[in-house]
């Protein structure tokens, strides 16, 4: 029983670790503030670059003096050569045109400045109320247009930031719900069996052994779940360090597939590996992690097969800029509408069937992230009742790496 108590303590510690992971996720929200800050700086720069208003006010200020002097000289000559009557007519014409001009000018000012500024003010009010979906119609002077365009751009970015924040929040809630559910199930089971054993001291030995086995299986499952979560969170936060090595793909795959072949044949599975590469090819990979990707995909092919004779075929070939390895099985296949979800974390196609299979639903999510860290990707195609084919694709470009290993 001491061991059991220690074991429960261990679980407690691991749950604490998961909680730390969730806190780390929460820090991602700062990214949204970074986006907002970038937007603000961009807005400032654009505004500084567009100095139409500044130019006008500067020139107007300096030209006032000249205009007054010019007018005084002009009036002096008109008065001297044409007399008082002419001056009165000219003044009347001038006042008339000033009146017309004033009407036109104020209309122009209202349409091009006051109305857009009022719209801008209402839009800013909307944003301060948390409604980021505002957009102002732009049809004014160049300067005001540029201001409105910058505002629209800023509002759009804020809206996107808000959407991203909501998505993070949703994601976090879902993650917590998934982790709680997936940890709670085995813990409840372990507690239940331990309680039964404590209450019923005279249980037959075979039953006790059976209970121990169940407790052990549940603990193995929890360990796998927590390890997968750790790895996934590191990948998610780009904190996993990969040990890239330049390897000869042919040698690497031959060795890896040989390992699988022995294991599969021991289990009565027909395993076939075909190398279609014409010449030696080198790529930069983290051998341990690539091994892990194949282990999950081939492991899935075995785990989810319901055929009497399980057949798995791995094919190595090149296609344009990629070196590809396809893993094809004769399993039940995956329904088309669920195919795009299988790379999502915690996603399981059939929850009822995967219950006893030690499945966390993290395997393909980890494989996808690992492939992306290698600059590659995973593709999948499947036909129900026929089988599934996963293709892992590595970029062919090899950066110079001093490190060499046994696959060279
Ligand atoms: N070859 C396959 N044939 C049929 N279904 C598959 C196959 N590979 C994956 N799936 C489905 O995709 C789901 C996601 O697979 P994934 O490897 O991510 O998780 P898992 O196998 O359930 O758990 P884990 O790999 O963490 O133990 C599986 O639950 C299964 O339903
Ligand atoms: Mg799996």
From TrEMBL:
Subcellular location, principal: membrane
GO cellular component: a single term: plasma membrane
Subcellular location: Cell membrane
Alphabetized UniProt keyword annotations: ATP-binding, Cell membrane, Kinase, Membrane, Nucleotide-binding, Phosphoprotein, Transferase, Transmembrane, Transmembrane helix, Two-component regulatory system
Membrane-spanning residues: 65-82, 88-105
Domain Histidine kinase: 178-398
Membrane topology according to the record: Multi-pass membrane protein
SMART domains the UniProt entry points to: HAMP, HATPase_c, HisKA
Keyword Transmembrane: yes
UniProt-listed Pfam families: HAMP, HATPase_c, HisKA
InterPro entries recorded: HAMP_dom (IPR003660), HATPase_C_sf (IPR036890), HATPase_dom (IPR003594), His_kinase_dom (IPR005467), HisK_dim/P_dom (IPR003661), HisK_dim/P_sf (IPR036097), HssS/ArlS-like (IPR050398), Sig_transdc_His_kin-like_C (IPR004358)
Annotated ranges, domain HAMP: 111-163
Reactions catalysed: ATP + protein L-histidine = ADP + protein N-phospho-L-histidine
Coiled-coil positions: none
GO MF, one annotated term: ATP binding
Entry EC number(s): 2.7.13.3
Top-level taxon of the source organism: Bacteria
Protein name: histidine kinase
Species per Swiss-Prot/TrEMBL record: Clostridium kluyveri
């Amino acid at each position: 029983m001491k061991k059991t108590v220690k074991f429960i303590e261990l679980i407690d510690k691991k749950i604490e670790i998961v909680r730390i992971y969730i806190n780390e996720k929460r820090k991602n929200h700062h990214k949204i503030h970074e986006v907002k800050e970038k937007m603000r700086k961009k807005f400032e720069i654009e505004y500084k670059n567009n100095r139409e208003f500044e130019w006008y006010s500067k020139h107007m200020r300096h030209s006032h003096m000249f205009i007054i002097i010019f007018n005084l000289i002009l009036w002096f000559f008109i008065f001297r050569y044409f007399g008082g009557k002419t001056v009165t007519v000219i003044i009347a014409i001038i006042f008339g045109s000033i009146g017309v001009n004033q009407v036109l000018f104020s209309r122009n000012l209202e349409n091009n400045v006051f109305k857009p500024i009022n719209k801008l003010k209402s839009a800013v009010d909307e944003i301060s109320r948390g409604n980021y979906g505002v957009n102002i119609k732009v049809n004014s002077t160049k300067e005001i247009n540029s201001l409105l365009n910058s505002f629209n751009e800023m509002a759009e970015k804020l809206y996107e930031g808000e959407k991203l924040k909501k998505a993070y929040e949703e994601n976090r809630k879902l993650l917590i719900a998934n982790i709680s559910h997936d940890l709670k199930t085995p813990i409840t089971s372990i507690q239940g069996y331990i309680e039964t054993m404590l209450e019923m001291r005279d249980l037959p030995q075979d039953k006790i052994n059976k209970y121990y086995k169940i407790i052990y299986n549940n603990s193995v499952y929890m360990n796998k779940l927590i390890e997968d979560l750790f790895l996934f969170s590191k990948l998610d936060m780009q904190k996993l360090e990969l040990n890239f090595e330049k390897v000869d793909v042919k040698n690497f795959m031959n060795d890896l597939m040989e390992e699988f072949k022995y294991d599969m044949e021991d289990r009565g599975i027909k395993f076939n590996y075909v190398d279609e590469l014409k010449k030696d090819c080198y790529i930069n990979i983290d051998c341990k992690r690539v091994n892990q990707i194949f282990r999950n995909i081939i492991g899935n092919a075995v785990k989810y097969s319901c055929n009497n004779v399980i057949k798995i075929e791995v094919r190595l070939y090149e296609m344009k800029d990629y070196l590809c390895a396809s893993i094809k099985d004769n399993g039940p296949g995956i329904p088309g509408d669920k195919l795009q979800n299988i790379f999502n974390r915690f996603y399981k196609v059939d929850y009822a069937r995967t219950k006893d299979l030690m499945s966390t639903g993290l395997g393909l999510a980890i494989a996808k992230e690992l492939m992306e860290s290698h600059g590659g990707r995973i593709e999948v195609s499947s036909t129900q009742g026929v089988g599934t084919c996963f293709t892992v694709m590595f970029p062919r470009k090899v950066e110079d790496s001093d490190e060499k290993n046994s696959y060279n």
